[in-house]
Amino acid sequence: MKRPNAKMMWAAFTAGIFVQAAAAAASANADAWAAAYRRASDLLSNATLAELNNVTLGLSGGTVDASSACSGISGSIPRLGFPGLCFQDAGNGVRAQDGVSAFASGISVGASWNTELAYERAKYMGAEFQRKGVNVALGPVVGPLGRIAEGGRNWEGFGADPYFSGTLVRPTIEGLQESIIACTKHYIGNEQETNRTVSTLNPAGQAVSATIDDKTLHEVYLWPFQEAVEAGTGSIMCSYNRINGTYACDNHYSQMHLLKGELGFKGFIVSDWSAQHSFSTAANGLDVVMPDSAFWNGTQLAKAVENGTLSRERLEDMALRTVATWYFLGHDSKYVPATGSGAGFAESGNLTKPHAFVNARDPASAPSLLRQAQEGHVLVKNTNKALPLKKPNVLSLYGNSATAAQLFSGNLEAGVLGGTTAYDTFNFNWQFLGKDLYDIYVVGNKAPHTFPGLLFTGGGSGSNTPPYLSTPFDALTQRAIDDGTQLFWSLGSDKLNPAVEGASDAAIVFLNEYSSEGWDRFDGLTDGPSDELVKNVAAKCNNTIVVIHNAGARIVDAWIEHPNVTAVIFAHLPGQDAGRALVQILYGNVSPSGRLPYTLAKTEEDYGSLLAPATSTLNDTDPQVNFTEGIEIDYRSFLARNVTPRYEFGYGLTYSDFEYTDVSIRIDSINATGLFDTVGTVTHRVANIGDYSTAEVSQLYLQIPGARTRALRGFAKTPLAPGASKAVTYSLRKKDVSEWDVVSQQWVQPKGTYKVFVGKSVLDVCLQGTFTL
What we know:
25% of the residues lie in helices and 19% in strands. It folds into three domains: 6-198 and 206-328, TIM Barrel; 363-598, CATH 3.40.50.1700; 656-772, Immunoglobulins (Immunoglobulin-like). Helix 5 (106-112) crosses helix 13 (366-375). A hairpin with a 2-residue loop joins strand 8 (242-243) and strand 9. By secondary structure, it is an alpha/beta fold.
């Protein structure tokens, strides 16, 4: 059998995708990628077609090794020293393992508006993956972006704006890839869980097709993936859904033309688990299939090359991309743990069986974990400075989100339908990926709104096992001991009209809003019993504070204007240090500094067509979701429709006050610059005129000529002591002042006047200006 020639492989790559990437923009990683490709080409020059075929194949981790730490393992070439790659889920840390940390979720990182924290979190998280023998972390998530408010997986991403998500995905990839390969997902248009796969009750049907026009695709959904590519992401996962009628993993336009061509992506594309539907995925851009393949298994790709139905160059490229990424991230080093080692399980995924404990945690990460939890809290109401608390004599506590769930057993691989997980039907780990979960709705059951205990993560494959869980009740108890405070509590979920201790200085009500992979939040964004609890407590205590641990937008208008509801905090999903972080904020040890990474409406109807997923009938074989709103999602939709939200994108309070002054705008010539080059700056001054040391999140929005609304184009989080001020500068790239032209198929800069808005949120504008191109 003829073996591929190293020079031929390298020349083919150089003449194609690599040159397109280099011409598009200079990347800091370009030289490293080039070197990795040369080494991979040299190694694979001695590989047979069958061995190249094997590199593309995946197996579930437990199939290969019962003690594997992998959700899946890609094929190896032992003869040449390539061991294959271990893949594992990633949202909050290493999934289904002990000895790992439960980091803050993506939505909490988004709520922090802190790029430095995003990098720090990813750096520590990636190191834990590596210590467990994982090569590829299946994250970060920039799809779903958050198109619909009820999206089940919105909590895994950073927020509902492409610039915002793209700005946070860059440091996340940089941090992860200090240790492991980042797999940015889900590419592309994966904005709902409903119908994301074929229902078992309608096997003749197809997954939902996202119909997205070219301008919207580029300016919204492709934007954060392009930022990920510029950051050097080693892998990208194609999604379950169809895009304009063709499955994402079989879509030549999205994978070969856009991702590998226009964006110059140098890594490999891996399928979401069981997202492959045909043999043609090979020719159409898929490089690695998970967890196995009825179409590629054995030597089917090699045989296709021999009979002429698949080009040799394409098979070589599939293997080359995978091995080059392995070299690019230095996973050929002797210091990298063996692929899939580190779990210590006697039986894959079952922590209840005897096994060796492999501790991947780093004590140095502890301050960062606490900071992640703190900065994701968003204070949205604080009447008469109800917070911070000042050594209350009596404090009353309500709601079952104050304490941990009653069981955390560790048998985390059981499915939600069986009801045998640690949280019974509230599954915090593996889902059935939509097929059977969709049938829950068909037979009339409903997804849960709330969780019976502290919500520190959302559900599905993005969650993980905490080493401990600091709860609000535990942390408040310790504070009561220190301060001599009398605590009263009524925490049962059935206690919706509890008595309130008459001498209470404050009552704190703990709510949560659950969300998961596998389903969307069909029942809306409120919970009736929880709202009743708040109103009943507020009727009896004139200083009622509400804390919500939420996996997405949560409507609060049933009680937000009640005069006795004095403070409200959206705590999001803080991870293992949830309780400690919250109590430090409640008592003013630190000021809240988070901002909402999504828009919170007054009513569900205010979201319009962007509230709920597109649904279909049981017999519908071609379900569709049409992105007719175009680029106007989240706050841009509210602006375009002139709808006033309850709390807008970017909104949040601190314990201090800030003043904005002295805006200046400088724009240079943009004619000879690349898309990611800086073409100008916007500078202003921000001063802390209050009494607390805290950080202010200042935000820059641009409205380009011809656009109906403004869009985020910069943000900065600036720590300031009382009385201190600092200049804040935003760099504008050529891309940031551009729009996608569907005729010329390139980014263009509209001629005319650009409006500049600087402020505390998309609506709270403090400074304005203009510039002209």
